[in-house]
Amino acid sequence: xxxxxxxxxxxxxxxxxxxxxxxxxxxxxxxxxxxxxxxxxxxxxxxxxxxxxxxxxxxxxxxxxxxxxxxxxxxxxxxxxxxxxxxxxxxxxxxxxxxxxxxxxxxxxxxxxxxxxxxxxxxxxxxxxxxxxxxxxxxxxxxxxxxxxxxxxxxxxxxxxxxxxxxxxxxxxxxxxxxxxxxxxxxxxxxxxxxxxxxxxxxxxxxxxxxxxxxxxxxxxxxxxxx
Length: 227
Prior knowledge:
It contains 6 helices and 7 strands. With 227 residues, it is α+β, with helices and mostly antiparallel strands. It folds into 2 domains: 3-66, no CATH class; 72-213, 3-Layer(aba) Sandwich (Aminopeptidase). Helix 3 packs across helix 4 (112-124).
């Protein structure tokens, strides 16, 4: 990029971005801009690249998508049921692709009414947290977690549990799942919960990589043999 072209950008940047809502970003600046996207766990900015011209020069632009993570409300239940359906379909597809023998053990598909009642119970409980993620005010994911107690072996007496986490495919790789996880872990910490767990099928390698990135590790394993 020539010095003249850089000067064109710096001269026109303020006026241009105030009109379009886009930020001109030369190629070599992409990484510094992207590095601050997920600094805030509750609300973060996610870039999407587009093109425009300043004078006769083509310029790469980043339009900013606002990502918000908040507690779900009763009015969100229909959307949460839709997201739950999408999660179920994707989970079945991924699991059965790896191992058809697991089909009888997948979650039973429930009616919309049953799912709605379950969401209401989770929202009403002091021991549960339901989060919804929005991209530009449009729902794009959700998380369900709760606290529990246990008197058996191989599990902490009091623990937090991440039951469900889902982000729509078109909104992935934008830090949304990390933002929801951060909110859930902060919620557990406020309740003095020191152990947080989740379950994942051993064949789901992609999910396991993500969970390990967040600090989760194998604690115990349930092994089965098919006769």
